[in-house]
Amino acid sequence: MTAVEANFDGIIGPTHNYGGLSFGNMASDRNRGAASAPRAAVLEGLKKAKTLADAGLLQGVLPPQERPDTGFLRRAGFSGSDAQVLEAAAKSAPVLLRNVYSASPMWAANAATVSPSADTADGRLHLTPANLITTLHRSIEGPATERALSRIFTGDRFAVHPPLPPQSTFADEGAANHVRLCAQHGGPGVEIFVYGREASETWTGRFPARQTREACEAVARAHGLDPKRCVFIRQGQAAIDAGAFHNDVVCVGTLTTLFFHELAFEDKTGAMAAIRAAAEGLFEPVFVEVPENEVPIADAISSYLFNSQLLAMPGADRLMLNAPVETEETPSTQAYCCRMTSGNGPIGTVNYVDVRQSMRNGGGPACLRLRVVLTPEEAQAVNPACLLTDEIYSALCKWAEQHYRDTLSVEDLADPALMQESRQALDALTGLLGLGSDFYPFQRR
Fold it and tell me: Is 90 domain-assigned?
């Protein structure tokens, strides 16, 4: 069966700011309170997506969520008009205000876990939005993500599940902790779920282990996956303690190739053996391991070498790594990429892309996209306005130029005008993306 791996990138929202909300995310903490550039950010993200679309890859977009989330502030005890709610929160709970203004849904790798129809018992493509309960600002996202996915992946070919129960046992961070390997995208594959902890254990790490094994197993059950083709691997505590808050900070894979840092997994040898066993009869996995003595874990995390897109480009016989420019600017990762591509391994080229606005908040090229394997019939069933074409790209760029601020400070979040500007932008966006005039909460009031 012919199928392609599409990338659905999160459109960076108009309230993109550096609130420093993600404990364990070194870049987020380092840039807390700095002025952001929302217009530059959204245009960077769109340009990255358009470059891949121009290269012949199927490229889609996911909408930003409504921010600020004044409904959340009301559930937290504030009352009055929206402007009054914001004013009161700014005075008495400024950290909470930063949480409800976060543009974190831009990182679509956390939007959901996706299993293609070739892997599922009922032959449908399954999507489970992540509950993201480990951090307050991201825990808001799940229901809105479910609504967005239901408007984009419509019809009987798709199964959009609700998020897992919002309880610590089922802490789920989405596809940032999920990798699928296969011989070809349309054939059966091996789904690799990476978790940081088991729900019953006492965690003693420096930073939180955000994903539980129980969440991984629940998603695999809901998607109707063959247990023999699923692998559950524990993330290395050394990587988490160094700042690898998601597995995709130290590991990425596509087709038969898994590209990972030496410290990515707690039991590296056991992980590779389990993947080989699950792939038996389908394909032979190719492991590209980056040694700690060539790329120290600190460099891997600061450069986001692994938070890159590993892509099969049309007409190419080797894979391309779509990496952030920070990878090129870090001596150890630049040197490693030169050695890697000059050899005869599966990764033949590295392209460096500028997404600095996202990187300063802790998200690289891979964070910005959700991978969705689609058959031709499934691709036809996707909301066409959410697939990037020349016309849609041009319209989105004009929209961003019209509605986004050049700069935004954390202090600006108290300004009710920012809320109104954001709502005007999102109201216009629903028309561009064919999401309906009732998509956002403010449109339904």
Answer: no
* Residue 76 lies inside a defined structural domain of this protein: no
- CATH code of the domain in which 392 resides: 3.75.10.20
Please count the structural domains in the chain: 1
The model's confidence at residue 35, banded by pLDDT at 50, 70 and 90, is confident
pTM of the model: 0.96
Catalytic annotation, pick one of 251, 337, 367, 386: 367
Quick check: is 246 catalytic? yes
- Identify whether 261 is a catalytic site residue: no
Residue 266 lies in a domain: yes
Task: Output the CA–CA distances (angstroms, integers) from residue 272 to 178, 237, 309, 413, in the order listed.
Answer: 15, 17, 21, 47
For residue 87, give the 3-state DSSP assignment: helix
**Residue 223 annotated as catalytic:** no
Range of the domain at 118: 4-67+102-440
pLDDT digits (tens, 9 = 90+) for 339-370: 999 999 999 999 999 999 988 887 899 999 99
| Separation in Å, CA 80 to CA 66, 70, 73, 96, 175 | 19, 10, 11, 17, 38
Contacts of 80 (CB under 8 A, 6+ apart): 88
Q: Is residue 96 part of a domain?
A: no
pLDDT in tens, 295-341: 999 999 999 999 999 999 999 999 999 999 999 999 999 999 999 99
Catalytic residue among 5, 146, 173, 262: 173
Quote the pLDDT of residue 27.
58
Q: Which of 137, 223, 246, 261 is catalytic?
A: 246
